Amino acid sequence: MALRNTRNDLGENTKKVSVTVLNGTLTDMIDLTNSVRMAHWTMRGPNFIGLHGMLETFYNELFATADEVAERLVQIGGTPDGTSQIVAEKSRLPAYSQATVYTLDHVKELADRFASLARSVREGIDSTDEAGDADTADLLTGLSRDLDKKLWMLEAHLEEK
Ligand SMILES: [Fe+2]
């Protein structure tokens, strides 16, 4: 991996670990943002208006944090894996089905993906912290807390009577 020169004093290896973790997080976040938008657009069924509105908040917040993730990796010399083609190639999340319609089916599909991303972000906290990049670990810590909250909000819709 070629890093751009910067006056940022983190070590070369630390930067490489963080750029790798942040790029993995970025591709998954862009993919998840698009999946949330698909659900927002295509869902039909009970609780439509509440879920439709909640998901709009989710994708706006996800995309705002994806911007912070991309800018952090640029700050330490990296290049974002941010094009649609790279995201499609590298996302670790499963492809989102265009055929899903029922509201709670969407909620289950999204809950799986939020849980999966939260797990890899938590792994990223540990690896960037161990590599000596407390700032990236802090950014990822805030992100994982937000993903946990969104997972809770999704799972609350799946409760059986
Ligand atoms: Fe909309």
**Main β-sheet: number of strands, strand sense, barrel status?**
none
Rounded mean pLDDT score: 98
- Label the structural class: mainly alpha
What is the share of helical residues? over 70%
What is the H-and-E element order? HHHHH
Alpha carbon gap, first and last residue: 52 Å
Domain module count: 1
Return the CATH class. Answer: Mainly Alpha
Give a count of the beta strands, DSSP E runs of length 2 or more.
0
Question: Could you describe the 3D structure shown?
Answer:
- This is DNA starvation/stationary phase protection protein Dps.
- Residues 22-160 form the Ferritin/DPS domain.
- GO terms for molecular function: ferric iron binding; oxidoreductase activity, acting on metal ions.
- InterPro entries: DPS_DNA-bd, DPS_DNA-bd_CS, Ferritin-like, Ferritin-like_SF, Ferritin_DPS_dom.
- It comes from Teichococcus rhizosphaerae.
- This protein has 161 residues and is mostly helical.
- The chain has one domain (12-158): Up-down Bundle (Ferritin).
- 73% of the residues lie in helices and 0% in strands.
- The protein has helices spanning 12-42, 48-75, 84-90, 103-131, 134-155.
- The N and C termini lie far apart (52 Å).
- The mean pLDDT is 98.
